[in-house]
Specification:
This protein has a 7-stranded mixed β-sheet with strand order 3-2-1-4-5-7-6. By secondary structure, the protein is of the alpha/beta class.
């Protein structure tokens, strides 16, 4: 079976929205200086601009997502539609969000549109950085990346992703990481702490990894203001 048959998903079932580079720095307590010269995987990356901007600043960033089996232009058009739909939804539920970091729905739309533009342009010019894959399986060798970042996927979709899927995906992210994995945020779509987070931490600790809950300077969805930092165990530990 070809990779396309294994990974390609109907475009209508994909939500292609992303965060800006600056949002990523604040979500994951990073800085421009900290990412320079680092090999980083963003997975799943969606329409985020971290890969585009990060590479322009001296990092070596790869983006991975099931969506990347589709043409860049198709994804861009889908992304523009999704931004409008998301803005409409958020306007109906403004009380579920904090309006300090992002100031208004228009500010949100501007950020999401900028991220989509940066991502789309980079996909067109540097397609090799955007790798299609379906978690919990990644097409990379062990310890390929210094750091793996994963935003708005694990924990957030606890209503449709099983505990076993979380463990399998975290195991795979750690496999391709050399040093660490960071997961943002630690809440589900309702803003509640992921119900199995303590069990996940206990499992990761039992595998020899160091796990920390770290406060972030980013909060838009209420209570989504921290990330999990998993420092990988040394070989032989």
């Amino acid at each position: 079976m070809s990779r396309e048959k294994k990974t390609k998903l109907d475009l209508n079932r994909i939500v292609f929205i992303g965060r800006t580079f600056d949002e990523y720095l604040d979500m994951f307590a990073l800085s421009k200086a900290k990412i320079q010269g680092r090999r980083i995987l963003d997975c799943p990356a969606g329409a985020c601009s971290f890969t585009a901007i990060g590479n322009s600043l001296g990092a070596e960033v790869t983006a991975c997502d099931i969506a990347y089996d589709h043409r860049g232009e198709d994804l861009k058009q889908k992304g523009l539609q999704d931004i409008e739909h998301a803005a409409e939804h958020i306007m109906k539920a403004e009380g579920n969000y904090e309006w300090g970091y992002i100031h208004s729905v228009e500010d949100l739309k501007s950020r999401r549109t900028q991220a989509l533009h940066d991502c789309s342009e980079d996909m067109y010019n540097s397609g090799g950085r955007y790798v299609p894959a379906v978690l919990p399986v990644l097409p990379f060798e062990d310890s390929t990346f210094d750091t793996v970042l994963s935003a708005h996927f694990l924990f957030m979709y606890a209503d449709r992703l099983s505990y076993d899927f979380h463990i399998d995906t975290l195991t795979e992210l750690l496999r391709v990481a050399k040093e660490e994995v960071r997961i943002f945020p630690l809440v589900d779509l309702k803003g509640d702490r992921y119900e199995h987070l303590d069990a996940v931490i206990e499992y990761l600790t039992s595998e020899g990894h160091i796990v920390e809950e770290v406060a972030a300077s980013y909060e838009f969805q209420r209570n989504a203001n921290s990330f999990l930092r998993i420092t990988k165990s040394s070989p032989g530990n």
